[in-house]
TrEMBL record:
Name the UniProt record assigns to this protein: Heat-inducible transcription repressor HrcA
SUPFAM superfamilies referenced in this protein's UniProt entry, alphabetically: GAF domain-like (SSF55781), Winged helix' DNA-binding domain (SSF46785)
Top-level taxonomic group: Bacteria
InterPro entries: GAF-like_dom_sf, HrcA, HrcA_C, WH-like_DNA-bd_sf, WH_DNA-bd_sf
Residue ranges constituting the Heat-inducible transcription repressor HrcA C-terminal domain according to the UniProt record: 93-230
GO molecular function: DNA binding
Annotated signal peptide: none
Gene Ontology BP annotations: negative regulation of DNA-templated transcription
Amino acid sequence: MLSQRQEKLLNILISQYINNAEPVSSKALVKSGPFSLSSATLRHEMSNLEKAGYLTHLHTSSGRVPTTKAYRLYVDNVMAAPGIYVPEATKQKIHKAITDASDDPEELNKVVANVVAALSDNMVFTNIQDTDYFYKTGLSSLFELPEFKEFDKIFGVASVFEHFEKIFNDMEREFFGIPTGDVVVYVGGENPIKKIKDETVIMVRYPLSAGKTGSMTVIGPARMDYEKNIGLMRCVVEEMKKRVVNIKN
């Protein structure tokens, strides 16, 4: 069980790592301002968090990086919050894209994937339940991120992008048992896709026209902006629900 101070420290460290992609040192935490603690005290707390499995360090740096265990706690806190802030401009982009799209489920899924990929800079896949339809986009944006500069990483995500239809079919039975609208997050090592075992997979289902159900999968680094991406996917679900209601009326 983490103390309130440890959880605050962990949340700030994760936020800094998400933003900067650099291991976080005690000095960096002191400079960030929210702590009235010495660098030595923060180093001690970071050491305790490392012993508890929430942090690890790279051999090339004195700073720490979050583990899957840390990200899971962070994501659980984000998911449990009463509401995730989504900028009004982002809401408007999603609203306009979905409102302006045609009623064709495939075209609508394509529009949804493109707008989320553009806003998240991650890979996005969309599918229509009980069909062979898939749309995928965002691979090039992923390659711009610092995590994907090594050949093994590039090969892994490119292979998943190329063969996602088969991968999704293997996951489909479990996923489509999840209620429509619920965002599901597989953090880093939790994700069921072995070729990208260090990345994060986020999935959600939403209603389409003609009684069909669509799904979206976002894949990115474990360092992804969870609050932003979960907010985007929840916003998409709400807009799709509104669209279906308007069509029925």
